[in-house]
Design goal:
By secondary structure, the protein is an alpha+beta fold. The chain is built from four helices and 13 strands. The protein has two domains: 116 residues; 75 residues, no CATH class. The chain is 26% helix and 36% strand. The chain is globular and about 60 Å long.
Amino acid sequence: MGGMGSGRQRSTQIGNVEGVLALDIRALRRLGVIVPGECVIDTLRWSIDGLSMSCVRLRADLSDIERGGTLILRGDMPDGAISQNLAIEALPSSFGGWRCYFTCPVTARRCEVLYYAGGRFASREAQRLSYAVQNMTGLTRARRKAAKLRSRLQGTNSLHRPRGRNRIDMVERLRDAEFETKTAYHDRLCGLTGGSAIRQMPGGKRGRVRDS
């Protein structure tokens, strides 16, 4: 006879990527830290709501781009000091130039983003992280989608309100998202009430129906 929780599939994930610090090689390239054919030394800081969380010194050496390169990290992280060397692999791009990837120190796979957990940076799979949306219910995902669209329509300090055709398209997407939210809510309500719920009946009347 099984114990409590027997028969259930256990999750192998231990956290979400949204809750840890990330090292994105695409962002580093935009910042001028990852430059094929050069060796760059710089400082990287992570902050949340304007408060500094961590600071590391970077040395990105891609002098011999055909043989790849290295990224050396030295500094302070939330749980202590870090000293880590990461391998970088560069592949020729079909549009010219090079496309760079980190090599995960655990799985040895190419990846563009590494996440910090357990005192080191590694791939999402190696750190056993999931995306927050994976753990959401259908109703929560629908509400989150609608909220993001409303926020985008209102605009922020960094993003201007969409105009013209873009705004029309976004309004239509918001309507679809709100319909998805109502549908997901109804489905959940039916599940909680054993398949019965109040629905709008033809002719404007309301009645209780049971889903077959």
